[in-house]
Design goal:
Blueprint (H helix, E strand, L loop, with lengths): L6 E4 L5 H12 L3 E6 L3 H11 L2 E5 L5 H12 L4 E6 L14 H29 L2 E6 L3 H4 L5 H21 L4 E8 L5 H4 L3 H10 L8 H12 L10 E4 L6
Parallel strand pairs: 1-2, 1-4, 2-3, 4-5, 5-6, 6-7
């Protein structure tokens, strides 16, 4: 129970990778705040599976949503762990991409991460302890056709992670990022079989990852086992970017 007594926030924690991360942190003993925007039923299921957990509905793409999330957290104790997992896609080729599709993705994936990191860092600085884990993507490292907005937002998260790690290191606060490749989630399950087949051919391990495999990395970065690691981006992609 490496995280016993720790309070963790997982944004977008009701489904997919966020769900697996919330469950894994709960398994390690953390009290988990499962943040969600709209799917209350899914969030309640995650909370029930963890036991020591709380669902908090808040749209973190807005300043008011971030304030509401951290107000709920403050009522429960000191936030020790923040996992920024919430994100959206609005895929399309750049020449025909609308301003709205660009701004929505940047707002949710990058600006919201900035705001939650700011709110968490103010609290963690007083405690002189904490771990922030930002979920980025291999698209933010190598780019991806049809995802200029998403790739840009995830590259921004990597830059934010590195800079914030340098700001907060002397306060014993670690800031790291995890870059997933292709994982078996609702998002990838919606892809046509032929696309999934082609994707697997590009992965040296010839399969997609499971959400639980990504959650193990996040758990490590949340615990004292990673006490001398900060400012890093850990790629978990089955060798896709090797």
């Amino acid at each position: 129970m490496e995280l016993n007594g720790k309070l963790a926030i997982v944004t977008g924690g009701s489904r997919g990778l966020g769900r697996a991360i919330a469950l894994e942190l709960g398994k390690a003993g953390a009290t988990v705040i499962v943040n969600f925007r709209s799917n209350a039923e899914a969030a309640a299921e995650v909370v029930a599976a963890i036991g020591d957990a709380h669902a908090v509905q808040a749209d973190i793409s807005t300043p008011d949503g971030v304030d509401a999330l951290f107000a709920a957290a403050d009522a429960l104790g000191d936030v020790s762990i923040l996992v920024n997992n919430a994100g959206i896609t609005r895929d399309g080729l750049l020449p025909v991409m609308s301003d709205e599709d660009w701004l929505d993705v940047i707002q949710t994936n990058a600006t919201a991460t900035f705001r939650t990191c700011r709110a968490a860092s103010l609290r963690m600085m007083r405690q002189r302890n904490g771990s922030i884990i930002n979920i980025t993507s291999v698209s933010g490292i190598r780019g991806n056709a049809g995802q200029c907005n998403y790739s840009a937002s995830k590259a921004a998260v990597i830059g934010l992670t590195r800079s914030l790690a340098k700001e907060l290191g002397r306060r014993n606060i670690r800031v790291n990022a995890v870059a997933p490749g292709f994982f078996d989630t609702e998002m990838t399950q919606a892809l046509p079989d032929i696309v999934i087949k082609e994707v697997k051919k590009q992965i040296p391990m010839r399969r997609m990852g499971t959400p639980e495999e990504l959650a193990q990395m996040v758990r490590f970065l949340a615990t004292d086992g990673s006490s001398y690691i900060t400012g890093q981006t850990f790629v978990v992609d089955g060798g896709l970017t090797a």
